Amino acid sequence: MTAKTPGTHxxxxxxxxxxxxxxxxxxxxxxxxxxxxxxxxxSVRPAGDAPWAAHARSSTDADGRxxxxxxxxxxxxxxxxxxxxxxxxxxxxHPSAEGxxxxxxxxxxxxxxxxxxxxHYHVPLLLSPFGYSVYRGS
Length: 138
What we know:
Layout: E1 21-28, E2 33-34, E3 39-45, E4 53-59, E5 65-66, E6 78-84, H1 86-91, E7 109-114, E8 120-122, E9 125-128, E10 131-134
Parallel strand pairs: 1-8, 1-9
Antiparallel strand pairs: 1-2, 1-5, 3-4, 3-6, 6-7, 9-10
C-alpha cells in the first residue's frame, strides 16, 4: 500500500465522486470460502504502450477483500491487479500446490482492464486450483 506523509492529503470526502477507484475480493471456489492473506499489487498506466507503475500493495482480509486500495491517479487508462495466489493455495492445502515440483499451477493471476475517469471498478477473482475467473462486479 502507498504511504502518505501525515498532513499531505487535503482532498475533502465530498470530492471523491470524481476519483476513479478499484476494489477486489477473492473467493476460493473449491473450498467455498474467502481467500484470506493473498498479496495484491495494483499497477497503473496512462496508455496501452506506457510502462506500468506500481501504485499500491495490499492483502486480502478474512473476508477475502482488499478494502484499502487508494484512488487511481488522474490520467489512468489501464489497471493491473496482480494476485500472488501460490502461498494461499499452499496454505489452503490445494493439491495443485502441495508437493508439486513447480508449486501451484497458477502461482499468480494478473488481470488487466481499462478504466474511465470517475467510475468505480469492483473486480472479483474466483479462484480454484486449476482455474480462475474474473468479472466486473458492482
